[in-house]
Records
---
Amino acid sequence: MTVRVDLGTDERGQAVALDLEELLATRLLVQGNSGSGKSHLLRRLLERSAGQVQQVVVDPEGDFVTLAGPHGHVVIEAADYSEREIARFAARIREHRASVVLSLEGLEAEGQMRCAAQFLSALFDAPREHWYPALVVVDEAQLFAPTTGGEVAEEVRRASLSAMTNLMCRGRKRGLAGVIATQRLAKLAKNVAAEASNFLMGRTFLDIDMARAADLLGMERRQADVIRDLPRGSFLGLGPAVSRRPITVRIGAVETSARSSSPKLTPLPEAKPIDLTDLLAEPAEPALPMSFDPRPRQVPADELDQRIVRPEPVATLAPLPTKSDEEAEAIYADTLRTIVADPESAFRPTPELFQDFQVRCRMAGLPRPALDLPGFARRLSCARAGVFDVADPEWRDALLLGGQLPDDMLGAFLLVARAAREGRPCPSDAELARTYGTSSLGRVRRLLGYIESRDLFVTRVDLSGKRSIAIPRLGWTTEPAEAA
């Protein structure tokens, strides 16, 4: 399918269109000094291609958050979340094909680079089944792929540069089409800029930047002066998605606007010097309390997860029906089965799994799970042992007995209890380690020793080296089995 995006007009007034499908395969580099119209160009591209392709915008100044209203982009305020949450959002974005704006406003330069590196790397590392086509727009790309380290840590610079290089060099096979914009080509790493096949070069004045722009456009050095004379909002375009020969493109109008704009002159106040002096000398009045918080509201991570998965406005959705206790327990059990079925869940922190649990319950139609974090931790321990129905009367005594142990040990206790109750062989140290959330067999042996010191286990090892564990208070005993 061929989709052409109207960018504007050429010097003859004819429409100039960008081939979106070709752009996905060949990438785009936009260059121009501050005030040349780079952000205006990117906004025109995003508005005209919205609804045709997934869009992911890395926005260091928060200028593109206004796309959220008319075009439905999900805004992620990076300053409100941890690096792990940012990476999780990126994975969900690729899975659910949501268009988002990652606003880095409020972060220092090093924090912006660290966050962008984590986000882009997670987009790049998505599983193969989620390699859907997406435009990845990075404004002020020289911040994330600098030629020199500057004042940031070398580790952060390398991580950010590596993520940008992967986006531009290897992203095409994963469906990621990089669209990067920079104020200065000389400050942008060459291995990042060189991977673009389409160019839109705006006004610039420094000789080194004009020379590099002329080289990329296939122009002679003496023709580079034309770049200095470009008016604001005009760009020289070249590339398979734009034109086979350099053309001048005057970017068309946009529907949305940035939160910030260029300063405009306003008339000075009309007052005599003496009056103005008295005015400045007046004592300051106490500041009135603000009627609203001008800062963006922090959206909880699980709520933002929900927006990515189901980006429809909440106001248009019907309220979720109330669930009975039996229906809620069934949702808990199904959700816990899904979580423990993931082999990586054994080594993920319990608070992170709790957030995942809350999101899955909401997706299943349960408005707000009644379990808190400690209650979830105990249910998770039971689920890891294969006990999903904690209301089962046959497990009541075992659960009461296991209640004497810390929450993280309950799963190992119930795993042994389940094997003893069903007359199966004693679980191995490796099985107990997975339930306990560790890979250390030494910790498992210390765990068994602790439970035995509480008079809950009695361990026997026969002459062949096979181990069996009895639970005297329940009258259950496992069959002998190798501990390894």
---
Amino acid sequence: MVARMHTRIIPSTGAPLPVIGLGTWRGFDVGNQPAELPQRGEVLAALFAAGGSVVDSSPMYGSSEQVAGELLERSGSRAKTFVATKVWTSGRQAGIEQMERSMALLRTPHIDLMQVHNLLDWRTHLATLREWKSQGRISYLGVTHYTDAAHAELEAVMSAEVLDFVQFNYSITDRAAEQRLLPLAAERGIAVLVNLPFGGGRLLGRLRQQALPGWAADIGCESWNQLLLKFVLSQPAVTCVIPGTSSPRHMRDNAGAGTGELPGPAFWRPRLAELGV
């Protein structure tokens, strides 16, 4: 029997969301390479087979929205997908036009989560997103960023605005979000998507040169990917982590982190020094 992926609750609605998703930056930007599409379809199939649902994209990611939309339509998988994308422009009308184009590229009249990418003109876009949410065009709204330097501004927006989701960077080597953002998300009832869970990939390259610690098996980890993702999920405020990949094998591996034991921060504290982080 295949273990099913854990879910966590979206605080604003109480709906469950699988804890491992898929980021499409770079990996799905292959719209001008038709021969690459079947492999991306296999990535999506691996996500769904493991019980995942979140697919996160952006107009910033080249042809990723187009590729994801085509593959979801081709496979008939839209109904099982939690589609998240972003608005990344300035001005109300430009934002509306960009979001409508995203819907067309993703081949859906409804987006599960629309986010203001990197906080660009966030006041303008949040007003539009609230209108769209009331109209049923989107289910959830949020804001994103990917650098520690933006955490103070993210904190200010999270404190001042009613948000369903926030997305930011967090990893075993970049734990700044523990200071304010994760506690604030829990306090404010904001779901958290985590990007860059592998620290941009450099960490994985280093760790793969060494053996997994013996205790990794105690929490069901068979790879460094799974260990690093389980670390991110040790924070109860994290709702879903969205590592990017273009490899079906890596997607299956990543998804495995969402099963079995998910130990909390107390488990990890004495083990961080052993990992050299």
---
Amino acid sequence: MRSDIDLGLTGERPALLDLTELLATRLLVQGNSGSGKSHLLRRLLEQSAGLVQQAIIDPEGDFASLSDRYGHVVVEADGDDVALQRIAARVRTHRVSVVLSLENLDADGQMRAAAAFLGGLFDADRDHWYPMLVAVDEAQLFAPAAAGEVSDEARRLSLGAMTNLMCRGRKRGLAGIIATQRLAKLAKNVAAEASNFLMGRTFLDIDMARAADLLGLERRQAETFRDLPRGHFVALGPALSRRPLTIAVGPTVTVSRSSSPVLVPLPEATEDARALILTASPQESLAPLAPRPKPRPAPTPDVLVQLANYRPPAPVEEPDEEPMDPEAREAALAEVLASVLADADAAACTPATLYQDFTVRCRIRRLRGDTMGLPEFKRRLAVARAEAGGAVADDSGWARAQEIAAGLPDDLAGLFLVVARAAIEGAPCPTDTMLAEAYGTSSGGRARRMLAYLEERGAIVTRKDLRGAPIIAVPDLGVETGPGEPQLLPTGPKRRAG
């Protein structure tokens, strides 16, 4: 069965999302109001409607139009939590796509209704754990980072249901897709479980910094989120792309009931404006006023009894995780680093680009906590590139070579280690291509200039044999390479004859 769905374009190519991978890794969408989040969700849901069952938690009733074209059943929440749990159980049993519309409830009622419905999906029988996309629009309403005007009980129930969806839903076939206006308002333990990201236009510094951190970008690159046009998102993750790329979301078939505001000319004043607004028409006087939604009544009217029976809410249970053995963790990090270097494009990529790929792969492998910083990654990358041909004997001076490399600038450590290894093994002097790959560039001339800089610092000495073949010596190790290809090295600083 086809598993790729089309989100739009990235440059001239279609932007594809691997639906099978998404079911296992979850998705986070972020963007300020008007950036096109709801349009992106609608495009994703329309493209995958015929491939997988869907459930949409819709606080504004915008996605009810999916029912006309794709057969989604619209469930209007009325505050009966038990009924919603039973409906959710039947949804999983009969594999029907639904839209849970919460527009008629206040904030407290929306959180309770969403918690009841998600709980019913989560607690379904094991026989009915079919794959399902669960999209939650305005997720910061249901998983807030801090307490607000809603009751503590409603917040606890809703946050617990969202945590279950993102942390433990995968084994039950539930793939969470959460969209939020601000990452700073979304609970971190909910956002951290997503491995795929679509980041739209953002203006606040704290949200740009957090978005850049999730994508593995440097802080100076966070400014690009301000310049994204509406409907454009930066994508990253195993279901989208291994490297950050910008996609333009394509058009949708259905439309939202609440579209963007458009300027409309004012009507010409033909009657007395004061009479129009202060005098009721005959039709208006006959039409009954719609009752305002009433807040859910408290179970006990006596406030003193409520205070006496109050108990602080229990903390949200986090999924238990066994701490990884340090040796196993180190082996896993080494394996991830090896997989990064095995990529066909890794030789021409800078360490910063490879570090982004490394952090994403660590998230996929569930290596939590601080994996390693960029300086440590650069050091290990230099050693790994130098040891690409196999380990060097312990008694050969390789440990001393790594100590010397640690005292050099980060971008030169890998270049020095490649030369040092060739000298230790008595191998021919490295070629331009080998030096360029060690430095992380495709320019052999640039690598040779860096080699001359190493010679100025006294780390190496270059010379030529009688045939003009280059030889590089490492004075601190007392070793030198074999003759390489002629005309490899630039002419070094001229020395006066003694």
